[in-house]
Amino acid sequence: MFRQTAFGIALSALVLASGLTTVPIPNNPSTNTSTRNKLLSLFSSQVAISTPTFKTRELEKSVFDEINRYRASKGLPKLTLNANITRQARIHSQNMAKGKTPFSHQGFERRVNAIPIRYSSAAENVAFNRGYSNPVDEAVTGWIKSPGHLKNLKGNYNLTGIGVATNNQGEVYLTQLFFRTSTLRRKFS
């Protein structure tokens, strides 16, 4: 049965900015080359009853749990949540939700370099959606169906951070950063 409310029918949207991965340059652990894929958009019709209110910290935990369940189902080691990485992911999601930065990977290298961790590789997945009762399921499902995002989800990473932010329009922005900690030792002169 189809119901229409006083708010009418709205378009629900899930938009994924294709997964961004950095590849280390041999013999130079601090220099990375970024690769970008094209923007992937998925749309579906859905009735919008009202603008939902989400608890972003709970959504972040839900993303973390879903990604680790997925990795475990594929025989991959679970990721460890890192507060410093989460802080940078959350700032990026907040900036996108507020319109301070476009929905993109813009500033990825700056975010990664702001985290005081020695790493050998890093990657990022971002998603945006509106109108879904479970924005985490929509984002994670979209990431799994997208080759670039899936590569990051299944990548040889051991640390992660997840940031979620919403705005008054009911838009939900999700950022997940992935890190492989470095075993390289820094030489001091």
UniProtKB/TrEMBL annotation:
Matching entries from Gene3D superfamilies are given as: CAP
Q: Which residues form the signal peptide?
A: 1-17
Q: Which UniProt keywords apply?
A: Signal
Give the highest taxon in the source lineage: Bacteria
Task: Tell me which InterPro entries the record gives.
Answer: CAP_dom, CAP_sf
Return any one Pfam family short name: CAP
Ranges where the SCP domain occurs: 65-178
The cross-references to SUPFAM superfamilies, in alphabetical order and at most eight, read: PR-1-like
Q: Mind telling me what this protein is named?
A: SCP domain-containing protein
